[in-house]
Each structure stands twice: as structure tokens, then as C-alpha cells.
Amino acid sequence: MEFSRIFMFNCCALLFCTALAYGQATSPPAPVAMSPTPAPAPAPAPAYVNLTSLLSVAGPFHTFLNYLESTKVIGTFQNQANNTDQGITIFVPKDSAFKGLKKPSLANLSDDQLKSLVLFHALPKFYSLADFSELSTKGPISTLAGGQYTLNITDDSGTVHLDSGWSKTKVTSAVLSTDPVAIYQVDKVLLPEAIFGTDIPPTPAPAPAPESSPAAAADSPSAESKGSDSSPESSPSTSSSQRILNLSIWNQLVLAVLAAGIVLFF
């Protein structure tokens, strides 16, 4: 009897252990916790480009910068450079380019024409030097002056040539070429055909000198001096006439005395 109980207890224990082992072998593994993938950091905003500070220390570009400020085009350039996705490309003439500009003179332009000329030196998009090779195949390129103010650009073995239709120049160096702003130095001022291909208002002639009236001329010291100078000339002629008159009277008296003497003698 005792042996039966022990045998039954061992069989139950064996079945329980077998079931437990089978359950552990067939149960799915616990899911592994996944860490969240971090989102990519946003690209840093491009640094603000201060064109006034940049042009004041490079070049020298003082003359072009003065025109930018006097026409208030500097604000248009700054907005295009820092507040648009397209960026800006600027062709800046050195001071010596303006000194060599003798005819026609920019002083003859109206305010609107001068503003258009300054805007004509910029493209409303960023272009690196490598972009000009493809750009040269697209024909006239629009400038910030808009409308008929276009540029013809050609790339000759890496040298960029600009043709305004009235003047030609080339890029001599890159001052800045970092998206969104490109500034290139050119050796001549770009003169748009839309302005210089037409009649430019001539420089106003100086006002004529005021003419003095005859009455004022008569009262002037010069007139008095002329009158005083003429009086000595008239006095000698008067004295000569007086002498001739006196001489004729004496001659008549002498002749009368001689005649009277001859009568008395006979």
C-alpha cells in the first residue's frame, strides 16, 4: 500500500514537470522594447548677409555702394538676399570703372533711370561660377530691373562675359559665392540698352549772365570816366579856334592902317 502511494506521487510529479517544461518551450519570447528613432535636426538657417558692410570693405566698391544707398536699391538687394529662396547674384564695378566712364555720363540720367541702372547689375537668383556655363545657353537673362533690362551671358573657357547690348564687360573675380548670395567683380559699368540706346536728356546749359541796362551803363563809373576823358580832348580844339579868330582880327586892323596911310600920302 505504501509503495503504491509513492509510485503515484512520483508519476504525478513527473507529469507536472514535463508539462511545465513543454509550456516554457512553446511560449513565444517576450517582445523587445524598441527605442524611438530620433527625428533629424532641422537645417540651420543661413546667416544674415549685410551687403553694406561687405561692399564697404571689399573692392573698393564705394561708388557703387553710394549709388545703392542714394537710390535706396540696397533695401531691395538685402530683401532678395535674405528673405527669398532664390537668393541674388550681383555684378559690382570697382571705383576705377566709374572713373573711366566719361561718355555718356550718369549725371544726365533721371532718378528712375539711375535706379534701373543699379538694379540692372543684379540677377534675382543665386548663380555660382559653375552655373554660368549652362546659363549661357538660355539666351537673355532677366535682371532685377525687370522688363526689357536683360543681360546676355556667355562662358568662354571659364571666363564669364556680360553683354548689355550697349556695353560689354567680364567677371574678374568672385567676392562672395555662398548660397544665397553671389557677388562678382566686373571691370566696367553695365549700361543697359533700354536707357543708353535712346536719347538721354542733355545736361542743362548754364544760366546767361545778367545784362546791364543802358541807364545803368550811363550811370556807371566807366561812363563817367569816359566823359571826363573826352573833356580834355575838346578843350584844345576850342583854344585853337580862338587863336585863329584873334589872328584874323589883327590882320584886318593892320590892313586898315596901311590903307589909311596910303590915302593920306597921296
Automatic annotation (TrEMBL):
Record keywords: Cell membrane, Glycoprotein, GPI-anchor, Lipoprotein, Membrane, Proteoglycan, Signal
Top-level taxon in the UniProt lineage: Eukaryota
Membrane topology (UniProt): Lipid-anchor; GPI-anchor
SUPFAM superfamilies: FAS1 domain
GO cellular component, one term: plasma membrane
Primary localization class, coarse: membrane
UniProt family annotation: Belongs to the fasciclin-like AGP family.
Task of the protein: May be a cell surface adhesion protein.
Signal peptide boundaries: 1-23
Originating species: Hibiscus trionum
Any Pfam family hit: Fasciclin
Location of the FAS1 domain: 48-190
Subcellular locations according to the entry: Cell membrane
Cross-referenced SMART domains: FAS1
Name used for this protein in its record: FAS1 domain-containing protein
Record's keyword annotation contains Lipoprotein: yes
Region annotation Disordered: where it falls in the sequence: 201-241
Biased segments, Low complexity type: 212-241
GO biological process, one term: plant-type secondary cell wall biogenesis
Pro residues: compositionally biased ranges: 201-211
